[in-house]
Amino acid sequence: MHLAPHDNHNQAIIGANHALVPLVYLNIVMLNAGESFTSQVAGYETCIVPATGTVTVTTDGKSFAGIGQRRANVWDGEPEGVYVPSGAPATITCTTKAEVFIAGAQFGEYRPAFAARAADIDPVQYGSDDTKTHRKIKHILGQKYHSQVGRLLVSELYTVGTGGWSGFPSHKHDTERLPLETRHDEVYNFRFNPSHGSGLQMLQREPGKSGDAYHLMDRSTVAIDKGYHPCCVLPGYEMYYFTVLGGLTQRPLVQYFQPEHADQIETIPGIKDMIAKFK
Prior knowledge:
By secondary structure, the chain is mainly β.
């Protein structure tokens, strides 16, 4: 499902218990300096990540100040975030004008709040210009925090250079059948540099049959319930997407690569390291 860019008025874009992707949650909040917003999502653990601006997050009896250092856009520095326990209220207070992602995954147990600072972000870069798959992933809730989080994975994905493919070889994660695959619902929010750039999200729900293709613009949101889902960006532009994954039974993601394309795993430098990071 593709949701075109729109003003969501600080209301959830993908709400709790969404009919298509019930395991994940996404809100994007726009605030001016000095303004506050309280988020509380029953049954979901969440992570608060400023796209731009600096905020203080108060939750679980703790206050985390100075979260977020980016000013112009998501290419302007490293991400930071605050993990919020399942169902707990979290008040975001802006030091500067800010745009804030609130990402969530369905999870009923308690985990204490903590801050993921820029110095602790877990990055991985893989692919190559030759294979048109060059990209960088910044894991905000990465492997370092595995024991501190329930089923939520939050990352920022960047194409490296201008143009190219992401999420290739085509893969899916819509069926719980370990050790081959896990069920993880997923939602993306896209940005382009320059912002008038655009891209394409493919979604093939049935092998051997034509799927859907969505025209991506700056601030497009895509919800992935099932199927193989590579995406690409036009030549001359950089693409970013904020990624939220929620597992049905576990946090580690096990991707199933489309058999027709799986052999290309062997041709893309560093892709096996990337696969191993989604834990």
